[in-house]
Amino acid sequence: MNFLFALLAGIGFGMGLTISGMVDPQKVLGFLDVAGDWDASLAFVMGGALMVFIPGFQIVKKQLTSPLFEKSFFLPSANSIDKPLVIGAVLFGIGWGLSGICPGPAIANISGMEDKVFGFILAMLIGMIVARRINAK
């Protein structure tokens, strides 16, 4: 049952990314170019997502003691800003700014069969392997 809901959530997420234009690297780069020809349309996408998420999260947090299909919620336990978080955020931002692609849209964009997307996914996987090895020490 969990697999089915994860699949449906993934399909919904991919459809949302595609419909909103977030899988188009040029649209994302246009959004990130605040000093140039700024495309503010993705701000509305993000604002709309927050308008759904924030009240939904508050309702779930106050009214549910556990998820419907799990034993407990999996919430992050870390609440401090540390060096690994900052380094990761900087690397993520640089990669997103240079390519216009981030992990979710990259996976949703696999069907486009673009070399740039496959290059991004390869770089992302290499980064994950390197990070895992560094954290294992």
Main sheet: strands, sense, barrel: none
Number of domains: 1
**β content, as a range?**
under 5%
Structural class: mainly alpha
Shape: globular
Describe this structure in words.
InterPro entries: DUF6691. It comes from Alteromonas sediminis. With 137 residues, the protein is mainly α. The chain has one domain. It has 6 helices and no strands. Helix 2 crosses helix 4. The radius of gyration is 17 Å and the shape is globular.
Write the layout of secondary structure elements.
Blueprint (H helix, E strand, L loop, with lengths): L1 H19 L4 H8 L8 H23 L19 H17 L3 H6 L6 H22 L1
Tag the structure with descriptive keywords.
single chain, 137 residues, mainly alpha, 69% helix, globular, membrane, transmembrane helix, YeeE/YedE family protein, DUF6691
In short:
By secondary structure, the chain is mainly α. The chain has helices at 2-20, 25-32, 41-63, 83-99, 103-108, 115-136. The chain is globular.
